[in-house]
Amino acid sequence: MLSSYDVIEQLAELFVDRGTPDFIRSDNGSEFTAEVVRGWLGRLGVNTLFIEPGSPWENGYIESFNGKMRDELLNGELFDTILEARVVTEQWRREYYQRRPHSALGYRPQAPEAILPVQMNQLDLNKDLTIIPIGT
To answer: Does any domain span residue 84?
Structure first.
């Protein structure tokens, strides 16, 4: 289970990478409603929007993800170990976000992998090699 400090740590990383949002929508889990988290968000000027209990339609994105994950992965797998479950679900998650086309995004993936092409001069490993004599 996540603590409120775990939530702050993860949100801080996201805010550094993507900027501070105006609002955060979350469920009413104790890790999000904790005074520490709400105080920290308030000091940053981030407003909180909580989903009403029993109202999953208020967060259609995660409900869509959960349904697809259940239908496409979990209903067809039996995991023998926690490690196997982690590996298989992470592979599925990466496929879902980084490679799979989504109709709402013009059939592009949500978070495509960034692959930089290698330039030919990067392959010349000896290009800037300086030889330093040892023991002379």
So the answer is: yes
| pLDDT value for 61 | 65
State both tokens at 97: 């976000």
Which range marks the domain in which residue 53 is found? 4-105
Q: Which long-range contacts (CB under 8 A, 24 or more apart) does 56-63 make?
A: 58/25, 59/25, 59/27
For residue 33, how many other CB atoms are within 10 A of its CB? 14
Taking each helix axis as running N to C, give the angle between helix 4-18 and helix 35-44, from 0 to 180 degrees, rounded to the nearest 10: 20
What are the DSSP E strand ranges found in the chain?
23-26, 47-50
* Predicted pLDDT at 44: 93
Query: Does 79 score more than 80 pLDDT?
Result: yes
For residues 88-95, average pLDDT: 91
Mapped onto helix, strand or coil, the DSSP state of residue 50 is strand
**3-state DSSP call for residue 85?**
helix
pTM over 0.70, yes/no? no
